[in-house]
Specification:
- The N terminus is likely disordered.
- By secondary structure, this protein is an alpha+beta fold.
- Helix 12 packs parallel to helix 13 and helix 15 packs across helix 16.
- It has a 7-stranded mixed sheet with strand order 4-6-2-15-12-13-14. A 6-stranded mixed sheet has the order 1-30-29-28-23-22, sandwiched between helices.
- The chain has 3 domains: 199 residues, Aldehyde oxidase/xanthine dehydrogenase, molybdopterin binding domain (Aldehyde Oxidoreductase, domain 4, 2-Layer Sandwich); 194 residues, Aldehyde Oxidoreductase, domain 4 (2-Layer Sandwich); 113 residues, Aldehyde Oxidoreductase, domain 4.
- Helices cover 25% and strands 26% of the residues.
């Protein structure tokens, strides 16, 4: 029997360090004889460099070197296949004189101070041979997208196998056919991208860089510079936000490490906010078309979901919008298909719930439209059509409690009091609307390894290269170790984010907790076996008597054959209330309830915080976030935190978060799935659905700016 779950609410282990400033981020490491690099970036979006004059810059005070394509330091081509290595941009920095997007890195100035490097960069004189860029989606050429992680971007069943959907649509009691658009979103984590690269000699590299994947970065830098992985050390104990843009090395980091090797001096490069617009990834704009056909009772007879997204000339990245369609609602006839176009922009990349976020905006908006068309409650329509199995994999879902998410959320929100007609609910002269949408994200995990040491001072130390980008890994690792060992959490010290520690896996795809916690459990059980003790206190007594310094053990955990028996997915539901002042186009989100099924909740406080962060990010996606490119020049029209709009505290109401369900013990021994990304999925749809209820206007293009409401 599922129920509202209770979990511990341990305070953040890293909280004090962060609020007092003792947490050390990449750019803050103090390295003797440190040099500073400043990037030179292209001011055109397509063409090539005709000439580049660095003489004045090279003579500028404090300048050590100026690197361009003419004297680029040596970099090896990596495998770039996720297994051995992965870089965000397949084209290596300074590879040639070609320009593929505005803001592309075309040089690096290295000087004894940051200010002198920046001044010298502005002294470099560049002449271009410019070509007309493709900076608008309507001018791009679209082709079928390549497979993503081995999954083909087209799926068909039922009448679609025969190539026809006409009869299904013609015989439907109700149908929806609509196109939904989302805008380019920029990555703007609180900590900007930064790196310090230090060579001990030509064969030993230390990298201080915010990364979501210590092991992956270690392997990648080793291939880039023809080293063995153990010759590279990655240090990243704290990451000030990542959301997908700090998983692999970007060109600025690769170039910095190459320059440091050439100069045999440590070099630091920090991207400005303006440089991050082009050089740290973004979420591609999308265009999606949904066709739904249903019987009079709401039973879906057909779903077609097609999508378009965009990539760059220097790499291929698909925003896989249709991937979650087969897991949400059952239909005998189903088709998903995705195309990819190329523009002269920086490479898009993973961004919190890549694919699921824009994909659910389209699907959950279309479901709401269908509910109004049929005169059926939107919750009833979703419950009637929820699928019990992953339709593409043909596997049943493990520990699915989507129904409870909707039912409990409706009760908490007071959905039964919802008016059944658009524009029928007002308060203080403003239109009021209520909206609901589903949330979902796959349950992912990978292998992880942890070392646990019991010391004779009565404390336990947990060490792993897995890291914390603000999601709470320090806290859940400590509380898990404390629980297994029978220790107060204050007696557990956690060290993360160093490649010298055992491989902790990737902080991405909402899998760090799911991968790391089972390994912590195994390591703690193993160290107690080593000590021949039932708990830590008994082990400490034995340790003191033996006069040893420590007991230690290593534990690992990895997925097994369970993925052949079950499909693993997390579920949720968002309920929101908006008020709309049509005279001035002002929309305010006034109330929010989110209910999530994520398996076991390891820490209620940090898990709820993750959901709230996702909701806030989703509200930004729905109402504000948008990056346009100049159609003629290809430059981004917005380029910093002053011109790129995102939510502030005044835009966000109290967000009520609850968890339902039970531990998913088919998934891993802890029964815990991830929570980092599901919170954003469905948010923009819930908000748009509320706007329709308030105003009667169906808005299908994000963001919902004031002009669309007047």
């Amino acid at each position: 029997m599922s129920q509202v779950m209770k979990a511990n609410s341990t305070n953040r282990k890293d909280g004090l360090a962060k609020v007092t400033g003792t947490a050390t981020y990449a750019a803050e490491h103090q390295i003797p004889n440190l040099l500073h690099g400043y990037l030179i970036t292209a001011s055109i979006a397509k063409g090539r460099i005709k000439s580049i004059d660095t003489q004045t810059a090279e003579k500028s005070k404090g300048v050590i070197a100026v690197f361009t394509h003419k004297n680029a330091p040596k970099i090896s081509k990596p495998s770039n296949n996720f297994i051995n290595s992965k870089i965000y941009e397949a084209r290596l920095p300074l590879a040639d004189d070609k320009i593929h997007y505005a803001g592309q890195i075309i040089g690096l100035v290295v000087a004894d101070t940051f200010e002198r490097a920046r001044e010298a960069a502005n002294l470099v004189k560049i002449a271009y041979i410019a070509e007309t860029p493709i900076a608008e989606a309507k001018k791009a050429t679209f082709k079928k997208a390549a497979s993503v992680f081995g999954e083909d971007m087209e799926y068909k069943k039922g009448d679609f196998e025969k190539g026809s959907f006409t009869d299904v649509m013609a015989g439907a009691a109700a149908k929806v056919e609509a196109t939904y658009k989302t805008s380019t979103e920029l990555h703007a984590p609180l900590e900007p991208h930064a790196i310090i690269a230090q060579w001990q000699n030509n064969n030993s590299l230390t990298v201080y860089e915010p990364t979501q994947w210590i092991g992956g970065s270690q392997r990648t830098y080793s291939e880039l510079f023809a080293l063995a992985p153990e010759q590279v050390r990655i240090i990243s104990p704290f990451v000030g936000g990542g959301f997908g843009c700090k998983a692999f090395p970007w060109p600025h980091g690769i170039l910095c490490a190459a320059a440091a090797r050439k100069l045999q001096k440590p070099v630091k490069v920090v991207l400005s906010r303006r440089q991050m617009t082009a050089n740290s990834g973004h979420r591609s704009e999308t265009e999606q078309t949904l066709r739904l056909a249903a019987q009079a009772d709401g039973s879906l007879q057909g779903i077609e979901h097609t999508a378009k997204s965009l990539t760059s000339e220097v790499d291929v990245f698909t925003e896989p919008c249709t991937g979650m369609t087969t897991v949400m609602y059952a239909a005998p006839n189903l088709r998903t298909y995705q195309e990819l176009g190329v523009m002269n922009v920086g490479t898009p990349t993973f961004m919190r719930a890549p694919g699921e976020n824009p994909g659910l905006f389209a699907l959950e908006s279309a479901m709401d439209e269908l509910a109004w068309e049929l005169g059926i409650d939107p919750i009833e329509l979703r419950l009637k059509n929820e699928t019990k199995e992953h339709q593409r994999k043909g596997l049943p879902f493990s520990a699915k409690h989507f129904r409870e998410c909707l039912q409990i959320g409706a009760e908490k929100f007071g959905w039964q009091n919802r008016s059944k007609k658009p524009r029928s609910f007002t308060r203080d002269g403003k239109l009021i609307g209520w909206g609901v949408a589903a949330a979902t994200f796959p349950g992912l995990r990978s292998s992880g390894t942890v070392k646990v040491r019991l010391l004779n001072n009565g404390t336990a130390h947990v060490l792993t290269s897995g890291n914390d980008m603000g999601t709470g890994a320090y806290t859940v690792v400590a509380s898990t170790a404390a629980e297994v060992l029978g220790l107060p959490v204050e007696k557990v010290k956690v060290e993360l984010g160093d490649s010298l520690f055992p491989n902790g896996g990737l902080a991405g795809g909402s899998q760090m907790t799911a991968s790391l916690i089972p390994a912590v459990m195994v390591a703690c059980e193993e160290v107690l076996k080593t000590a021949q003790a039932e708990n830590a206190e008994a082990a400490f007594n034995s340790l003191r008597q033996s006069q040893r310094v420590a007991f230690e053990a290593t534990g690992s955990s990895a997925p097994g054959a369970e993925g052949k028996q079950w499909a693993f997915q997390s579920w949720g539901a968002h309920f929101c209330e908006v008020s709309v002042d049509e005279e001035i186009g002002r929309l305010q989100v006034t109330r929010w309830v989110s209910v999530m099924d994520i398996g076991r909740v390891m820490n209620a406080k940090t898990a709820a915080s993750q959901v709230r962060g996702g909701v806030i990010m989703g509200i930004g996606h729905a109402l504000m976030e948008e990056c346009k490119f100049d159609p003629n020049l290809g430059n981004p029209v917005v380029y910093d935190l002053a011109t790129y709009h995102f939510p502030s505290h005044a835009d966000i109401p109290r967000i009520d978060v609850a968890f339902v369900g039970e531990p998913d013990l088919n998934f891993n021994p802890a029964g815990a799935r991830g929570v980092g990304e599901i919170g954003i999925t469905g948010v923009s749809a819930a908000l748009c659905n509320a706007v329709y209820h308030a105003t009667g206007k169906r808005l299908r293009e994000l963001p919902i700016t004031p002009d669309k409401l007047i």
